[in-house]
Amino acid sequence: MSHLQVGLIQMCAGREPSRNLADVSQMIAEAVGAGAGFVATPEMTNVMDEDPARLLAKLRSETEDETVAAFAALAKRFQIHLLAGSLALREGDKLVNRSLLFSPEGRVRARYDKIHLFDVTLGGAETYRESDRFHGGKRAVVADAGEARFGLTICYDVRFPALHRALATAGANVLMAPAAFTKITGQAHWHVLLRARAIETGCFVLAPAQSGLHETGRETYGHTLVVNPWGEVIAERADGAGVLMAQLDLAEVELARGRIPALQNGREFTF
């Protein structure tokens, strides 16, 4: 079957991992109850906090983290593929911003560390320096889950088309874009960037998002989206915590690429 029922979680994570885990576990169960065979959560599912010392004090490595263990158990219990869009996990003197794809057996099938770190001054006092807290990843990752072949990205990665083209060339037919986009950048760029990545690659794009005013004072944009390979938004949840359901017909990938064979027609060039 080329059809995949997906459930995307939109949430407003706080500073306490245990509370975030309780909230997201309930929404994962809701998505499964609605028929999802694949469920994905946003960036920073386990914690939203910009304070490096506080994060290092409360977070654990992948092998010790309570959210990782709970997600493995949930995937096995519900017999689904489950993507932790990203978790902040301790690794040495810093953290990693890591996506984990769990199989229906409850095993980690793939892991991806965010390559492009958000070091940006948006204006006024709104400044973000992820490199102060996180190690950047170095490897692109594609992972199979049934007939779907997922290309893993996280948030700021969406602004780098070369990564997405490489994932599609490596066989991805669904691109993941879990995010915690700021309200300012989301209003300006969120929809157009996600639609562009879908159009350029002929892939579905799934973007579960953080939404709302967080305990830290940061406001995220929400607007969890499902974009088809022709670049059309086929499902959207504007704001508020909850589940967005959609059905993907993976046959649409080859149809879109047949109409616009951009992956095949790319050529090397020099200056």
Walkthrough of the structure:
There is one protein chain. The chain has 271 residues and is α/β, with parallel strands linked by helices. It has one domain: 4-Layer Sandwich (Nitrilase/N-carbamoyl-D-aminoacid amidohydrolase). The protein contains 7 helices and 17 strands. The protein has helices at residues 17-33, 52-58, 66-78, 161-169, 183-201, 251-259, 262-265; strands at residues 3-10, 38-40, 81-91, 94-102, 108-113, 119-123, 126-129, 134-135, 142-145, 148-152, 174-176, 204-207, 211-213, 219-221, 224-227, 233-237, 242-249. Strands 1, 2, 3, 4, 5, 8 and 17 form a 7-stranded mixed beta sheet that branches. α1 (17-33) runs parallel beside α3 (66-78). It is globular and about 50 Å long. The N and C termini lie far apart (46 Å). The mean pLDDT is 95.
